[in-house]
Amino acid sequence: MKRKTLVLLIIPASAILTFLAIFYYIYNQPHTNYVTAEPDHRLNTPMELYHAFLEDETLASTTYNGKMIEFAGIPDFYEELDGKTIASFYLDEGDFGPQGIRCTFLKPIPTESQQGKIRLKGYCTGFNGIDIILENCSLITE
Amino acid sequence: MKQALIVLLITILLPLGLHAQKYVTRNAKVSFFSKTPIENIEAHNNQVNVALDFADGSIAFRVLIKSFTFEKALMQQHFNENYMESDKYPSSTFSGTIKDFGKIDLTKNGTHQVEVSGDLTIHGVTRKVTSQGTIEVKDGRILGTSEFVIKLKDYNVKRPKAVAENITINVSFDAAKI
Q: Which DSSP category does B152 fall into?
């Protein structure tokens, strides 16, 4: 009788603990590892992405927003902000100066790497009317 | 002859002067906060374009919804998929004017309390909003802050039970002259 009561207590307690563990895991699941994430789209140039948004923003948003994009090119400008490096590709001239693609890197890029052509991948969050924004970018070593 | 010269100079210089009153930043910060019994909900977006034109006092910004980052990945996922529907409504915008912008002397450092009003579009719904803020002229740059308190139901955004009806949206920027 005592053993039966113990079993009856252990089963629901185990179920509750399992449920709590699963809930805790899901609730605290880590963000996507953007460094190891495979690109959804591999493009040849930054212009390819920019043109897609210029030609049909709705279609491009459906295709690229929320996706990992990879391309290679020579950034026109680098800046440091909040401990991160932002590389800008200027592809057009707008009312508020040059516009194109802004890529925010997860980590600062050493100055020696800020020269010439780079290959990168990043998470596209969309077109803000001036620039296409890529977040959580990382360099791809060729 | 003298009058003709003055008119000519005004014609040439006026557009240059107006152009010089445009300020822009691509690194404005927009964040929102909501206190819940379980956990505070807070998200940040540091990739916001803000454009100001002191020729007419206009101010505009566009915020990409997917650029908001949360501490918890699950919260970020639910925010995008269930509440803001960021695939359908990828951005939020504000377009308005700064009241009494003419009183701000852009040539002198100083802080000014301002009232900003205009159209705020969230989740595909546009509403008139008015907010208080500050504009600081600092060494030729414009630093601004403002706070908008919105009701989620006004923008047809579903609300988790634990989340308060009112959400505070903070905007801050440091814009350079173009």
A: G
> Residue B123: how many CB atoms within 10 A of its CB?
18
Sign of CA dihedral B122, B124, B130, B134: positive
Residue B170 burial (CB count, 10 A): 14
- Is-above-0.80 flag for pTM? yes
Cβ atoms of A90 and A76 closer than 8 Å = yes
What residues does A120 pair with on adjacent strands?
A: A71, A139
The tally of CA atoms less than 13 A away on the side-chain side of residue A136 is 20
- Residues B25 and B175 sit within 8 Å (Cβ to Cβ): yes
Q: 3-state class of A82 per DSSP?
A: coil
Q: What is the DSSP string of B56-97?
A: TTEEEEEEEGGG-EESSHHHHHHIIIIIS-TTTS-EEEEEEE
Query: Which residue shows structure tokens 């070593």?
Result: A141
Q: Mind listing the pLDDT tens digit for each residue in A66-112?
A: 999 999 999 999 999 989 999 999 999 988 889 999 999 998 998 88
User: Which residue out of B26, B30, B50, B56 would a mutagenesis test of the A interface target, given it has the greatest number of A Cβ atoms within 10 Å?
Assistant: B26
Residues of chain B contacting A97 with CB distance shorter than 8 Å: 24, 178
Residue B66 with chain A: CB contacts under 8 Å: 65-66, 125-126
Backbone angles phi, psi at A50, to 5 degrees: -65, -45
Tens-place pLDDT, residues B62-119: 999 999 999 999 999 999 999 999 999 999 999 999 998 999 999 999 999 999 999 9
Chain B hits for A81, CB-CB cut-off 8 Å, are 27, 46
